[in-house]
Amino acid sequence: MPHEEPVVPPPEDARVRALTEQLDATRAQVAAYALALDVLGRVSGLTDAGAVADAIVHLFTMLFAPGEVRLEIVAPPGVQDLIVSHDAGAPRAPLEFDYELDDARHGFRQRLTHDGHVVGVIELLDLAHPLYRDRYVNTALTIAPVCAMLIVHARALRGLIPICSYCKSIRDSQGTWHELETYITEHSEALFSHGVCPRCLERVGDG
């Protein structure tokens, strides 16, 4: 009986297959990002940290189908009352990198960072499709800044705000002082228009 050599696909076929797989992965990532923007756009008006956390958990659950999701929103220094935890497990050490793979639980942990500060950590465990984990991580890295921005926006004008008794400047969590108008404009959607109140108008008129 003659020996049959294994059929080796031509190099062109292998290249076409690789490009097709890459295109499919790119399409899936674009679709996931579009879904993320749609969901996050609908919750962008939320000002409650708990509601924002619920929306982020819901989004990551829809996108990646994990068996378990843990989210911890980290408040700025000195504002511990704003911490919202969706993690029933023990506290974990802070991440040193943007993400960390968990091979034992077929998942990963992802930092949510805004302006260089970690505002939260989300952990996805027992993924329904662990073979797609690398693709999921890339998508999570893409949408993480938007999630972090929503968290910062929701908590920006809550809690105690240190304000100067004389010039009314506001001190941020890093100890830097900002003019009142600048701080509110940067941390909310409010815009300022200027006028003169009756008391000041009377005082200026007397001068």
Summary of the model, kept short:
The chain has 207 residues and is of the alpha+beta class.
What does it look like?
The structure is a single chain. This protein folds into two domains: 11-155, 2-Layer Sandwich (Beta-Lactamase); 170-206, no CATH class. A hairpin with a 2-residue loop joins strand 4 (107-114) and strand 5 (117-127). The protein has 207 residues and is of the alpha+beta class. Strands 2-1-5-4-3 form a five-stranded antiparallel β-sheet. The chain has a two-stranded antiparallel sheet with strand order 6-7. The chain is 43% helix and 18% strand. It contains five helices and seven strands; from the N terminus they run ααβββββαββαα. Mean pLDDT is 75; it is low at 78-91. The chain is elongated and about 105 Å long. Helix 1 runs antiparallel to helix 2 and helix 2 runs antiparallel to helix 3 (133-155). The protein has helices at residues 11-42, 49-64, 133-155, 180-187, 198-206; strands at 66-73, 84-85, 99-102, 107-114, 117-127, 170-171, 177-178.
